[in-house]
Specification:
The chain has 101 residues and is mainly α. Helix content is 64%, strand content 6%. It contains three helices and two strands. Strands 1-2 form a two-stranded antiparallel ribbon. A hairpin with a 5-residue loop joins strand 1 and strand 2. It is elongated, with a radius of gyration of 22 Å.
């Protein structure tokens, strides 16, 4: 199994586990910078990881990333829809149904 190395020296196995890479990036970049990580810092680290991958690994992680992002997007859309539905119900509870003012 191929391995890649972050600039911190931490090694990761390329086993298709996208969440493993995300967790390592969080621990090794975000937390080690005490949450003061910039867009450029994270992009530099990600670009370094991708540069170490072969074409097959890049394809596998791209597919995994697109899948994870589509699920996240769906969940955010459903959450927004549910908030809209519950907000509508709360607004309508002020008076009895069928009564006019």
């Amino acid at each position: 199994m191929r391995r890649v190395r972050l600039t911190t020296g931490h090694e990761l196995a390329l086993d298709g586990d996208l969440l493993g890479i995300l967790e390592a990036l969080y621990r090794e970049v975000t937390l080690k910078h005490q949450l003061r990580v910039s867009f450029e810092d994270m992009m530099h680290e990600i670009e370094g990881l991708v540069a170490q991958m072969d074409e097959e690994d890049r394809k596998r992680y791209l597919v995994e990333s697109l899948f994870l992002n589509s699920v996240t997007y769906e969940n955010e859309m459903l959450d927004a829809y549910m908030r809209k539905l519950t907000a509508t119900k709360k607004k309508g509870r002020g008076r009895a149904a069928g009564r006019s003012l």
